[in-house]
Write a structure and sequence with these properties.
Layout lengths: L11 E4 L7 H7 L2 E2 L3 E3 L15 E3 L3 E5 L12 E5 L8 E5 L2 E2 L7 E9 L4 E10 L2 E11 L6 E10 L4 E10 L14 E9 L2 E8 L10 E10 L4 E7 L2 E10 L4 E12 L8 H11 L5 H19 L2 E3 L2 H17 L26 H13 L2 H13 L1 H10 L21 H4 L5 H16 L3 H21 L1 E3 L4 E3 L17 H18 L4 H7 L3 H13 L4 E2 L4 E2 L23 H4 L2 H6 L8 H7 L6 H11 L10 H11 L3 H12 L20 H11 L10 E2 L9 E7 L4 E7 L2 E8 L3 E5 L2 E5 L2 E5 L4
Parallel strand pairs: 25-29
Antiparallel strand pairs: 1-9, 2-3, 3-4, 5-6, 7-8, 7-13, 9-10, 10-11, 11-12, 12-19, 13-18, 14-15, 15-16, 16-19, 17-18, 20-26, 21-22, 23-24, 26-27, 27-28, 28-31, 29-30
Helix pairs in contact: 5-6, 5-9, 5-20, 6-9, 6-10, 9-10, 9-11, 10-11, 11-13, 11-16, 16-18, 17-18, 18-19, 18-20, 19-20
GO molecular function, one term: carbohydrate binding
Keywords: Glycosyltransferase, Transferase
Family: Belongs to the glycosyl hydrolase 65 family.
Length: 760
């Protein structure tokens, strides 16, 4: 059942009420970020009701204690988690001595608006205090031009009588994580100072037992007012404030502009931090609020000019795709190769870690098409830089080569569920496939031959050690794994895992032909090792059922009681919130694409009938309780002609968070899976494929849409695709002419190519 809090609008999220019963959901959906930092959509003033106050700084984390009842050799030493940082947006408000609190106070004409086109969050409402009426107007943004900077404008207008208004902007380090194992406070004070109109606080993470460097953060604020009668400053433990008293007549406004700059020990020595954050503010002292907002909005416009997807005829679908692209770009835009895309971004703490395989499997295709290729290359470089950590992970379970982590900040695994951490090893293949995807899409082989081959070789060594030979069948097998469907654990011969392992070995052998003898010697590759890899490729076991003529998810999957999801009642769904784990594991229900993940990823290796048979068998068993699931199914449904099913699943991936499909968005947004809505349109509806270095399209138009259009970067070209009921138009906006396939026919793209009255 969907839960929709905001109006349908092409460019905005708009609400007319304080969602007291769904405040956390409202906060998640109005989160802001700029790649460097971000926060949930918390109100600036105090709110005494249920809320999740959250501010997060990219790359700042803590190694929390691994808490397990029965320790097993190989477990990670710690559970890495994003930690809630300084609350620097706070502004206490009192009116005639009464505190403004929107959980208690009734409001009129309340309006909350997230403008996705410009990356600005606004509120406006009327409130009564002591029988007097006041208008409150707020505006906040995190600059994507000057990423250390947050700006807040806060106005309170007396509508019908004079009043005393006190505005107290503050920075508060008394914050905790909701999901901490031991309810610990993660921050200690290093320094603080408050003077007239300015204040700075420096905090440092508490000691840890794992030889992990501690993080230090400095936040400095500067406050500007026009007509304050009195101002004071105060500093106390983990807290600094400036306080302004206004005496306003009827029709007058108490005005505050709060500027905050943040610096971290990722970039500065601890003793330099306070000076660095204060210098950030000094650097923009001559720029007024309007100038800073203008450059920020213009920078968002530049991003949208390349990345926007236009949908006519369905405003709900339009809002969904723009919301998802906005939140992805607010989380990551490739400026810092040390960073990656966290599954919750800056919107919550769940899942803890900074990096999952979601990045390579789902986010990378979007960034390849919508941003400069250096952004995608940074994502690959992130993994290469952590290769040593991946080797440590493999060694902990007695394996050669590299096992990339399920969850990580440094390359070392920091997730503590055995069936995920050391059984869901298919993620290793996603890392390898990302190298292929980048090379194939951009035509740039420099990363592959210089750095990528290091990663491929070590992953291949892991696969070669992880398989075993079945003497009974004379086939290689992989036992004790969890596939993408996490509702099946510790299985033997997950088809997808076996397939992507084999593909990785094959791709590595092919790639080795392109490197220099010196590089080959550096990798210590031998002919005997390659021969062993080839033997695995030639003799891998893949479970297959002759009756159904399908790839079998794992060895015993067809022995389950098979029933479709339409037999589930409303009381059952979602099953991950209503069933015991034991019942889920014994059921046939699939969390997300598993066999179909492989058929999607390697779509050029399977014919139409194979795709159709497997889709028709597995999709009815799939509950789509992973945010990653709908996109893959959308692409395959479109390819086999199930256009209505493709549209249904697109709507689910596009509005997964906006409509709270899985009843879990209050914990934070599903950032990495948001790329799925773009994949659903571009690879699903438009049928874009890039196999073997050749671009292809086979579009259709959803029945409820009038038109859609998008742009992609492809091999130093900018291409725009427009699809209407009767016409497919492909325009070359910049770059050299290109031969591509349209509905299976080779065509030359020189300027603008149109196909009229097309039929699939």
């Amino acid at each position: 059942m969907i839960q929709r809090l905001f109006e349908i609008d092409e460019w905005k999220l708009k609400s007319k009420q304080v969602e007291k019963d769904a405040k956390r959901l409202q906060e998640s959906l109005t989160s802001l970020g700029n790649g460097y930092m971000g926060m949930r959509g918390n109100f600036e003033e105090r709110y005494s009701g249920d809320t999740h106050q959250g501010t997060y700084i990219a790359g700042v984390w803590y190694p929390d204690k691994t808490r397990v009842g029965w320790w097993k050799n190989g477990y990670p030493d710690y559970f890495g988690k994003v930690i809630n940082a300084l609350n620097f947006i706070g502004i206490d408000v009192t009116i005639d001595g009464e505190t403004l609190d929107l959980f208690v106070d009734e409001t009129a004409d309340f309006a909350l608006e997230l403008d996705m086109e410009t990356g600005i969050l606004r509120r406006r409402f009327q409130v009564k205090k002591n029988g007097k009426s006041f208008l409150v107007e707020t505006e906040r943004f995190l600059s994507i031009v000057k990423q250390e900077l947050c700006l807040i404008r806060y106005h309170v207008t007396a509508l019908d009588a004079e009043a005393e208004i006190v505005l107290t902007p503050y920075v508060d380090g008394n914050v905790t994580n909701e999901d901490a194992n031991y309810d610990e406070m993660f921050w200690l004070e290093v320094a603080q100072d408050a003077t007239e109109n300015k204040a700075t606080i420096v905090t440092k993470t508490i000691e840890n037992n794992f030889d992990i460097p501690r993080f230090t953060i400095a936040a400095s604020m500067e406050n500007r007012t026009e007509n304050a009668k009195e101002s004071t400053a105060e500093a106390k433990k983990l807290y600094v404030e400036n306080k302004y008293r206004f005496q306003v007549a009827k029709g007058e406004t108490a005005k505050l502009e709060k500027r905050v700059a943040v610096a971290t020990s990722r970039d500065y020595a601890e003793h330099e931090l306070a000076g660095a954050s204060e210098q950030f503010l000094a650097n923009v002292a001559e720029l007024n609020y309007e100038a800073l907002r203008k450059e920020h909005a213009e920078a968002w416009q530049t991003r949208w000019q390349k990345a926007d997807v236009l949908i006519s005829g369905d405003d709900s679908a339009q809002q969904g795709i723009r919301f998802n692209i906005f939140q992805l770009f607010a989380t990551y835009y490739g400026e810092d190769a040390r960073l990656n895309i966290g599954p919750k971004g800056f919107t919550g703490e769940k899942y803890g870690g900074a990096t999952y395989w979601d990045t390579e499997a789902f986010a990378l295709p979007l960034y390849l098409s919508l941003a400069d290729k250096e952004v995608s290359r940074n994502l690959l470089q992130y993994r290469h830089d952590q290769l040593d950590g991946a080797k440590v992970n493999a060694g902990k379970i007695g394996m050669k080569g590299a096992l990339y982590p399920m969850v990580t900040f440094t390359g070392i695994e920091c997730h503590n569920e055995w069936e995920i951490t050391f059984e869901e090893i298919h993620r290793n293949g996603a890392i390898a496939h990302a190298i292929y995807n980048y090379t194939n899409y951009t035509g740039d082989t420099t990363y592959l031959v210089n750095d990528g081959i290091d990663v491929l070789t070590e992953i291949s060594r892991f696969w070669a050690d992880r398989v075993h030979m079945s003497e009974r069948l004379d086939k290689y097998m992989i036992h004790g794994v969890t596939g993408p469907n996490e509702y099946d654990n510790n299985v033997s011969n997950n088809w997808y895992t076996n397939y992507i392992a084999t593909w990785t070995l094959r791709y590595t052998i092919e790639s080795l032909q392109q490197i220099t003898p010196a590089k080959r010697e550096e990798l210590q590759i031998t002919d005997a090792e390659i021969d062993h890899w080839q033997d695995i490729i030639d003799n891998m076991y893949f479970p297959y059922d002759e009756k159904w003529q399908i790839f079998v998810q794992h060895d015993t999957f067809l022995d389950k009681e098979l029933r479709s999801t339409d037999t589930l009642t409303d009381a059952d769904k979602p099953i991950n919130q209503n069933w015991s784990w034991d019942k889920i594991l014994r059921s046939c229900f699939i969390k997300q694409a598993d066999v179909l993940q492989g058929i999607y990823t390697f779509g050029d290796e399977f014919d139409f009938e194979t795709k159709q048979r497997n889709f028709e068998f597995y999709e009815p068993l799939t509950v789509h309780e992973s945010s990653l699931s709908p996109a893959v199914h959308t692409v395959l449904a479109a390819e086999i002609g199930r256009e209505d099913k493709a549209v249904e699943l697109y709507n689910r991936t596009a509005r997964l968070d906006l409509d709270n499909y899985n009843n879990d968005t209050e914990d934070g947004l599903h950032i990495t899976s948001m790329a799925g809505s773009w994949i659903a349109i571009v690879q699903g509806f438009a049928g874009m494929r890039t196999f073997n270095g050749r671009l292809a399209f086979a579009p259709f138009l959803p029945k409820t849409w009038d038109k859609y259009a998008f742009k992609i970067n492809y091999r130093d070209r900018l291409i725009e695709v427009t699809v209407t009921a009767k016409t497919v138009s492909i325009a070359l906006l910049s770059g050299e002419a290109l031969e591509l396939d349209l509905f299976g026919e080779a065509v030359q793209l020189v300027d603008t190519l149109e196909k009229h009255d097309y039929h699939k």
